[in-house]
Amino acid sequence: MNFTYRFLTGFILLLSVNQVLAQFSETIASSRPGATYTPFTTGKSVFQIQTGFIYDSNKDTSIDYTRNGFSYTLLGRYGIAESFEIRTTAVLRTDNVTSSGSESSYGGFSLLDFGFRWNIIDGVESGTSLGLQSEFRMDVGPDEYRPQRQFANRTMALFTTPITDWLAFSTNLGVSWYDGSGATGLYTLNLGFPITSNLGGFIEMFGSFTGVTFTKSFDTGIGYLVNNNLLIDFSLGFNERIQSNFFDLGLSWRLPKK
Q1: What does the pLDDT look like over 145-160, one tens digit per residue?
Q2: How far is CA 215 from CA 23, 145, 185, 241, in A?
Q3: Which domain holds residue 227?
Q4: Is 37 helix (H, G, I), strand (E, B) or coil?
Q5: Distance (Å, rounded) from C-alpha 221 to C-alpha 106?
Q6: How far apart are the C-alpha atoms of 77 and 65, rounded to whole Å?
Q7: DSSP 3-state assignment of 20?
Q8: Angle made by CA atoms 28, 220, 138, in degrees to the nearest 5
Q9: Structure confidence by residue, pLDDT tens digits, 165-199
């Protein structure tokens, strides 16, 4: 089954809530669900939490390898100015691995980073928004999560623009540097549109690239705006190259601004 067929038939009703329910105004601006970050910030003096529970699995029959894992992600965001925020992310996970007939289990912090987002163009006049996000990863956690736990920097340009009154396009393009291992390019491509005034979703492709490799993953999901300060979401995805998939359930909550 080729990619075009799966793309068109598997995701036709999927939407993008983190574009439809954007930037600080009346409704919460969340980076969930999906891999694409929008340029929007929380707004000055606004604190926001985004959290998710993820199940993911990988299987590579060529090397007799299987991994099943659960992770909990917690992201905190705070607006220093209307267009500038600071952010920190922590991921706690556990994994069960079978490799060449032997089994092992391990767990701990797989990620801890600190960074910022700058909303350079807010899109109020043109509808097109541009941002810059940079994160610095700390060297924490067990050895099994290397290179994830190595010191690294990831910097991405964030872009969102409306295509029609009901369809939006967003993309991220950036690069990550791991300690001692050089640079890797990063990309996302995202289409989204609303279902109702409170429900939206997305269809997305994302991955990485170097001079010799190009990876592709695909995901989709929906988000429901419970109220102006609370968003719940669900997404799922897969990798085309290997037998890999994930399921993600989460929420975003904004401390009401006084």
Answers
A1: 765 545 689 999 999 9
A2: 30, 20, 10, 8
A3: 3-254
A4: coil
A5: 29
A6: 37
A7: helix
A8: 65
A9: 889 999 999 999 876 677 899 999 999 989 998 99
143 SS3 class: helix
Instruction: Yes or no: say if 84 and 52 are a contact pair by the CB < 8 Å rule.
Output: no
Give the least confident one: 115-129, 203-217, 232-246.
Answer: 232-246
Q: Is 221 exposed, middle or buried (0-12, 13-18, 19+ CB in 10 A)?
A: buried
For residue 13, the model assigns a pLDDT of 31
Per the structure, the count of domains in the chain is 1
Q: What is the pTM of this model?
A: 0.83
* Averaged pLDDT of the chain: 85
pLDDT attached to residue 22: 39
CA 182, CA 46: separation in Å to the nearest integer? 36
Residue 233: the pLDDT is 97
Asked whether 60 and 79 are in contact (CB, 8 A), the reply is no
Does the structure show a pLDDT above 50 at 127?
A: yes
DSSP 258: -
For residue 253, is pLDDT > 80? yes
| Residue 212: exposure state from Cβ atoms within 10 A (0-12, 13-18, ≥19) | exposed
Q: Smallest Cα–Cα separation from 157: which of 23, 37, 35? A: 37
CB count in 10 Å sphere of residue 172:
22
The span from the CA of 134 to the CA of 155, in Å, is 4
Buried b (16+ CB within 10 A) or exposed e, 145-162: beeebbebbbebbbbbeb
